[in-house]
Amino acid sequence: NQARGLFKMSNPWSTGLFDCFSDISSCVCVYFCPSCSYGQIVSILNTGQPGGACGDCGSCCVFCLLGYFGFVVSCGTRTQIRNKYGLREEPCSDCLVHFLCLACALCQDFREVKKQNGLMGAAAAPEVEEMSR
């Protein structure tokens, strides 16, 4: 049973921490609005969909209100991502990654949840359908 748990958490991340430019849409979103990016990460993690421009609105607002201290909540989300997809805790602890390199960590988290939910290459926000006449 313990060996199975070790195997489950041994999957590598699909991209590295510093591969920010491997998904330009995530990179731009994190750069210009990290709180919206965080809201989308939470939304994709919980529902499999980005959920609009701000994703999970509550998460977006909390992250925004915390300012630089947003890493306090985002590191817990990284742990949820790792647990859900069986990913390794690398290159160091989740909180340390988010504290030392928040933008890179958010980009990696964003890429991972998009990949795991089949959204890689998709725009950050869902498309709006046109109404027929």
Looking at this protein, list some descriptive labels.
133 residues, mainly alpha, 7 helices, 0% strand, globular, disordered N terminus
Structural class: mainly alpha
The major beta sheet can be summarized as:
none
The best one-word shape is globular
What is the number of beta strands?
A: 0
Question: Can you give the mean pLDDT?
Answer: 85
Question: What's the SSE pattern?
Answer: HHHHHHH
- What count of helical segments does DSSP give? 7
Task: Bin the helical content.
Answer: 55-70%
Q: Could you list the spans in which at least 5 consecutive residues all have pLDDT below 50?
A: 1-7, 123-128
Work out the radius of gyration: 15 Å
How far apart, in Å, are the first and last alpha carbons? 59 Å
**Percentage of residues in strands:** under 5%
Describe what you observe in this structure:
- This protein has 133 residues and is mainly α.
- Helix 3 packs antiparallel against helix 4, helix 5 (71-85) packs parallel to helix 7 (102-116) and helix 6 (94-100) packs across helix 7 (102-116).
- Residues 1-7 and 123-128 have low confidence and may be disordered.
- The radius of gyration is 15 Å and the shape is globular.
- It has seven helices and no strands.
- 58% of the residues lie in helices and 0% in strands.
In short:
With 133 residues, the chain is mainly α.
Task: Give the helix/strand layout.
Layout lengths: L1 H7 L15 H9 L1 H14 L9 H10 L4 H15 L8 H7 L1 H15 L17
Helix pairs in contact: 2-3, 2-7, 3-4, 3-5, 3-7, 5-6, 5-7, 6-7
